[in-house]
Amino acid sequence: MDFDWEDTSAISQKSSFESRDIEESFEDPFSVRLLLDAERFATQSRYFNLGRSASGIGLFSVYRTNGKQFRVILSRVFTEDETYFYQRRLNQLIG
Questions:
Q1: pTM reported for the whole predicted model
Q2: Residues 6+ apart with CB under 8 A from 33
Q3: For residue 10, which of 90, 70, 81 has the smallest C-alpha distance?
Q4: ∠21-5-75 over CA atoms, to 5°?
Q5: For residue range 51-76, what is the model confidence (pLDDT) as tens digits?
Q6: What is the torsion angle, in degrees rounded to the nearest 10, for the CA atoms of residue 21, residue 26, residue 28 and residue 34?
Q7: 59 burial type by CB count under 10 A (0-12 exposed, 13-18 middle, 19+ buried)
Q8: Are 52 and 32 in contact (CB under 8 A)?
């Protein structure tokens, strides 16, 4: 995977993770990628990724891609609901 990190504003200076963690969350074999069925997101080609970094940080990311390169627009730590959703999906896949 190739990431475009020209604009690093997707990572808050107060965050406990780095761009490496975001990249690892996309490489998580159990990551969940979504394209919401909403006109707003479809016209802007925005996708969502829920995945864990190698260090175990759960990250929710909004991104766009041209099929070759990923540009992360926003990334943050999982909320409680996202942790539940990710864990439920993980249990379905391995359970």
A1: 0.84
A2: 47, 48, 49
A3: 70
A4: 45
A5: 999 999 999 999 988 888 889 988 99
A6: 130
A7: buried
A8: no
